[in-house]
Amino acid sequence: MRCVVFGATGYIGGRLVPALLEAGHRVRVVARSPDKLADVPWHEQVEVVRGDVTDPADVRAALDGQEVAYYLVHALHRADFVRVDRTAAGNVAAAVREAGLTRLVYLGGITPSSDEPLSDHLASRAEVGRILLGSGVPTCVLQAAVIIGSGSASFEMLRYLTERLPVMVAPRWVHNRIQPIAVRDVLHYLTHAAGLPATVHGGFDIGGPDVLTYLEMMRRYAVVAHLPRRFVLPVPVLTPWLSAQWVDLVTPVPRSIGIPLIESLVHEVVRRDHDIDAHIPPPAEGTTHYERAIELALARIREADVPTRWSDATWPSAPSDPLPTDPEWSGGTRYRDVREHHTTAGPEALWQVIEAIGGEHGWYSFPLAWTVRGWADRLIGGVGLRRGRRNPRHLHVGEALDWWRVEALERPHRLRLRAEMKLPGRAWLELSAEPDGTGGARYRQQALFEPHGFAGHLYWRAIAPFHDIVFGGMARNITGAAERGDHPGGQPS
Fold first, then answer.
1. Closest of 175, 290, 293, 163 to residue 228, by C-alpha
2. pLDDT for 21 beyond 80
3. Which of 127, 231, 251, 293 has the most Cβ atoms closer than 10 angstroms to its Cβ?
4. Is residue 197 scored above 80 in pLDDT?
């Protein structure tokens, strides 16, 4: 079938596309920044179109000639995500009706059966589902609780809380029941939803075979990960907001995502029926047990084979959106710090160091300064340094890299990163390697800052005295590492 995927740059969408291709479907993907998909393995197998779900004209153009639409967009990063999601869902509902599609598929959240008010996150998911069900097109709304898979925000929160805290002070919600589901099972239901008959229309709960409390999930994770038993001390006065501050401190998940996730855990999210089984039977081997889902996720992390991560997704007006004018960022005030070094190492050896920068390998410059800046960024609501990197050796356009995002990658010559830390302006860091004609290489490093207002100018002038330590040290240490062969897979010379 001809399938169009909205949200292909996100966590689920990036995994669904290859599953649809494997099932034999023709796939069109919609992205606000198509360049983010330039490096994905399935790029040449799909049609990529530029589009924004908040623009009705873009949505109509993306749906032209298609049969099935997958809507996997969620503006959770934004403070006004409820309004944005409502608008985008309305655009899609109107456009699929106008285009005469045969099927619309949406992945939402399980709605608790209790009468207590829903969190904004769950309420927004439910509202989007209702809007799409009212489109007039046969619609399948799949509703899941916590998704367990390498790189998911829920899994990363669980993983870091369990691994870093042998004793945890936790609120009462750790005793609420949850029905987690493995990401592979979510993809099973999503993929098969494309072929549902037109008579199937409605919302369907999906879940794994285990119903657990969050406390049980942490303790079982510890067993699978071969960690000592974890102890949790419930504190009744710990609000979701306070819990999110704790999550923000301990895990890579920032408060902007942690608060909605935790507010959802205040409710018990257990599937109420198995109606979906009449239309899409479970996988032949059955849905994945919780412990097996953890094993699979940890195996991918160990093997550096994580196809998508929660941090890959961006949103309208995100700091990582490309500038409308590229390559010289001309116009207005631009502060630059440029460093050039010649090295006896070849350009390939130098590039291996450049592409492996960040994450566990660090930034080759004054680690304490980077750590302090990372903690300061987290305290004011930024992403900090703990997002790390997906693969220790290779990057791709659009990937989150600590507090940067990969904006341009011209392997093996140039890497450009765009800052996503909290700043009074916008910042980039560009690293490049070129042959010098003598067997060695020329390393060029450019830090660029575009200030916003007087605060931006003050910020640049305040940190300028430290540039030689930070940026100068980085240039010297990167070229030194290339000469020593200190890069992943390299042999010391």
1. 163
2. yes
3. 293
4. yes
